Amino acid sequence: MGKGGEQGGDSGEPAAQIRFYTWEEIQKHNLRTDKWLVIERKVYNITKWANRHPGGHRVISHCAGEDATDAFQAFHINPTLVQKFLKPLLIGELAPGEPSQDRDKNSQLVEDFRTLRKTAEDMNLFSASPLFFSLYLGHIIAMEVLAWLMVSYFGTGWITTLILACILTTSQAQAGWLQHDFGHLSVFKKSSWNHILHKFVIGHLKGASANWWNHRHFQHHAKPNIFQKDPDVNMLHVFVLGDTQPVEYGKKKLKYLPYNHQHEYFFLTGILLAFLIPCCHTLSNPNIFMLFFHFGHGWILPGFSGHPFPEVILFLESHWFVWVTQMNHIPMEIDSDKHRDWLSSQMAATCNVEQSFFNDWFTGHLNFQIEHHLFPTMPRHNFWKVKPLVKSLCAKYGVQYEEKPLGKAFVDIVG
């Protein structure tokens, strides 16, 4: 039971006395119409404010009834600034006798992880290298320019077309990794600059929506591989994932597709994407940015007007994207929410791929998926520096740190 006078709430008018709450009471407020969460032992009522949350209402709602301290730290590059939005939502604090973590989480592990994060901050690992990202954007633009020059000088013969397909597929894949950096606010210290560049790269170079990406991707990071919370594993009626979902489908006798053959029709999904995505972009979204890819790589590129060339590139790049993004998650645990601490929940759902210059470039440093999920706002060129600290912490508490060769990671997807 809470004690004392009410403080704050959605009215933003604090009372004179602080009210204290137990975890048992807080955990009851995890409904669509009633949401509380805890950050650094302070209790906030986010029920009405969730729909105004810049990251989307779903990602913050997934933390309702829980300690959201580590998630809050992970997603915001300036937590002090964000605190001003929390003040009107404050309704009290955890009772003095209550632990800082809910559901019997290992408090020492949680504290050690927070110490690790502070160490990474002291090592300046959350500061980006302007040279790295300038060169990265430069090599993408260089490939785009090279493609235009090749068409201008050599025309649209078969050899030229094959070479162009390789160049533009590569530029599209690399632009995908770059928009990911801006989307996670890991390049600039100001959120606004990250948002502007994110919209430019994903809108102009990729032909997709920044808002759509934010809405889905932050949910994935908050609750990776969790049914009903991670959109990346909610592929119902197309694939059944993990150990739990196939059993549930079997009991309910849901047979939308021959799931025993999903490892075979998985390879055909790129063809479907290649033809559906352009149609969806053109017909359902008025954002002119989303048409840029199809104008630039098909309708305006000399000699390719009315040609299926953009769909060929999209087909090739979609496979590159899917294989890389799924190699770190699909082979891992996929289940309902077990309400683990931040470190344990991310480690259960992610694995790494061995480091090499090619692997780093080919995957956009998503071969360091563990470090990326633990510290999503950290610039990717610093993942290798924090990796030894993460491995040491995992070894201390017996948390599995899985790392594998690139080839085995791809084979495990099919498995």
From TrEMBL:
Membrane-spanning intervals of the chain: 123-142, 148-168, 265-284
Keyword terms: Fatty acid biosynthesis, Fatty acid metabolism, Lipid biosynthesis, Lipid metabolism, Membrane, Oxidoreductase, Transmembrane, Transmembrane helix
Record's bilayer topology term: Multi-pass membrane protein
Molecular functions per Gene Ontology: oxidoreductase activity, acting on paired donors, with oxidation of a pair of donors resulting in the reduction of molecular oxygen to two molecules of water
Alphabetical GO biological process terms: unsaturated fatty acid biosynthetic process
Localization: Membrane
A single cellular component GO annotation: membrane
Pathway(s) annotated for this protein in UniProt: Lipid metabolism; polyunsaturated fatty acid biosynthesis
Record-annotated Cytochrome b5 heme-binding domain positions: 18-95
Similarity remark: Belongs to the fatty acid desaturase type 1 family.
Protein name in the entry: FADS2 desaturase
Encoding gene (name): Fads2
